[in-house]
Amino acid sequence: MSMVDDGTGRDNDAVDEPGWEVDPDDESGAAVVAAVGRQIKTWREAAGLRAGELGSLLGYGEDLIYKVEGGSRIPRPEFMDAVDVAVGAGGKLAAMKPDIAEVRYPKKIRELAKLEAAAVEEVTLRRHLGGRMVWRRQLEHLLEVSELRHVEIQVMPTSRDEHAGMGGEMQVLKFKDGSAVGRSEGDFGSRPVSDPRHLRIVELRCGIIRAQALNPRESRVFIEQVLGET
What we know:
Helix content is 46%, strand content 6%. It has ten helices and four strands, in the order ααααααβααβββαα. The chain has helices at residues 27-46, 51-58, 62-69, 77-86, 97-101, 107-110, 122-125, 132-146, 196-212, 216-229; strands at residues 120-121, 155-156, 170-174, 180-184. The strands form two sheets. Strands 1-2 form a two-stranded parallel sheet. Strands 3-4 form a two-stranded antiparallel sheet. 21% of the residues are buried.
């Protein structure tokens, strides 16, 4: 009899939860997962454990262990914590969690990180993180980015006590082939979504945020004013 659990991949014949497979077209991401898998296998063998034995210790199926070690399955954070203890890695495997965290999302989503610095609220502009000179360079960089044709910066004034973005970050990517991907922190498990119904919700919230924030011209003037205060 087949068993379907909570999506962790536990039990020998459990069905793997979609979304943790490695994208074969994402070469850099696949390389990270493969490297992590090799490290897990090396530590397992050094501990004198077979794949099935490790799976039994962790409560996962042997097949999942082979998939992770073979680089065809992205290991969950809780898996990395558990396997680290089981093989006595002393935190070395658990320390790889940040390396695989980005791989969980499609390559198109990860590319958003390059533009996230352009998404600000007023309070972020006024934080003196890293000292005054670093703060000035950050403001100057925002002004430079705002001149790019494909980038618009909008600042949310602190006077807006409540706005649609208070729940966390939101992103919507639309591609030339007509497809789209969105993500809203705290919604849909904080995972990227492509279902039109879910995308509509994210797009509506993004639209509300843009309406509540200063427009691009006003935002640029505001950043220039803050820079002048430094």
